[in-house]
UniProtKB/TrEMBL annotation:
Cofactor note: Binds 1 zinc ion.
Protein name: DNA gyrase inhibitor YacG
Renumbered residue ranges of the record's region Disordered: 53-73
PANTHER family linked: DNA GYRASE INHIBITOR YACG
Purpose: Inhibits all the catalytic activities of DNA gyrase by preventing its interaction with DNA. Acts by binding directly to the C-terminal domain of GyrB, which probably disrupts DNA binding by the gyrase.
Native organism taxonomy: Bacteria, Pseudomonadati, Pseudomonadota, Gammaproteobacteria, Oceanospirillales
């Protein structure tokens, strides 16, 4: 009877039927591996987050080295 409450979904990455439960933190994916594969595919299509982050880090460290009062005078 309790099994009727479990919703099965198809993993978007590998199409494996997986249970949509609180015990599955990676739902609707069957595993964290499939989750990472899907996120990786999405990220490489739309964004290059690691690159942008490192560029912004460099800009930020440059700003921190410059005293804003001195640059205005
Ligand atoms: Zn999967």
């Amino acid at each position: 009877m309790l099994n009727n409450d479990i919703t099965l979904v198809s993993c978007p990455t590998c199409q494996t039927k997986t249970a949509w439960t609180k015990e599955n933190p990676d739902r609707p994916f069957c595993s964290s591996r499939c989750k990472l594969i899907d996120l990786g595919a999405w990220a490489s299509e739309s964004y290059s987050i690691p690159q942008q982050t490192s560029e912004e880090d460099e800009i930020f460290s440059d700003d921190l080295n410059v005293d804003p009062n001195k640059s205005f005078l």
